[in-house]
Amino acid sequence: MNLLAIETSTEACSVALHHGGTTIARSELAPRRHAELVLPMAEALLAEAGIGRRQLDAIAVGRGPGAFTGVRLAVSMAQGMALGLDLPVIPISSLAALALDAPDNGAAVLAVIDARMGEVYAASYRRGADDTVQALDEERVCAPDLLQLPPGIDDWNVIGSGWQTYRAALSVQLPAPRWSDGERYPQARAVAVLAAAEFRAGRLLPPEQALPLYLRDKVALTLAEQRAR
Fold first, then answer.
1. 156-191 confidence digits (pLDDT tens)
2. CA-to-CA distance for 180 and 105, rounded, in angstroms?
3. What's 146's DSSP letter?
4. What pLDDT band is residue 217 in, cutting at 50, 70 and 90?
5. For the chain, percent of residues with pLDDT exceeding 70
6. Nearest alpha-carbon partner for 150 in 126, 168, 133
7. CA distance 135 to 95
8. CA angle 28, 189, 13 (to 5 degrees)
9. CA–CA distance, 67 with 216 (Å, rounded to integer)
10. Within a 10 A sphere around the Cβ of 28, how many other Cβ atoms?
11. Residues 196, 218: contact at Cβ < 8 Å?
C-alpha cells in the first residue's frame, strides 16, 4: 500500500507517504507558504522511498475543519493529483488526525483547534487499537466556554492550538487534563496512518466526492464586530 497524505488545515504544512508499512513525512510551520511547499515535499518523499507517482494507490487528505484557505488548498490538491493519476481519495478529519498524536494513556482526547473569531473547532475521541481513533461526539465550532463534553468522562488529554489560546475558557467545562499540549497541529503523518486503516476497509472515494469540511460559512469579522471586541 502506497498512500500520499496532505494536511494544510492550520499553520502547519505537512505531507506524508505511507509505504512498505512505514510512514515518512515532511512538516513545516509556514502559514502563507502551503501552496509552494506541498508539491516539493511530496516529490522529496517519493524520491526518498524510491517510488514514482504511478505507484501510489490513493491520496489521503486532511479535510478540515481548519482555516478556509488551507482546507480548500489541501482538498483541491488531493483531487487534482488523484484525477491525474486515476486514484481514489481518502478524506480524514483534521481533528481526528490531531487526536491521534495525543498519548495512548487510556484518557479520552479533546482535539481543539483555534478557529479565530473567539471560537474553537473541537471533537472528542478515544484512542483505539492499531493506531485508530473513535469519535465520541460530533465535530463542531463554538465559543470555548460553551463547549459541551460527552457526559461521564473525567479523564482527559487535550491537544491543539485551541488549548494554547483558550485554556482558561475551556477549563470552565473541562476537568484538569491528565496531559495537554497547546502547540500541536494536525499532521499528514497521522492523516496517512488513519487513511491506511480506511484503505484496508475499502472506504475510498472518487476525487469529486472528496469534499472539505468548513463547519461555518463566516470566515471573518465585520468592522463593527472587530471594534466591539
1. 999 999 999 999 999 988 999 999 999 999 999 999
2. 12
3. G
4. low
5. 94
6. 126
7. 10
8. 25
9. 11
10. 13
11. no
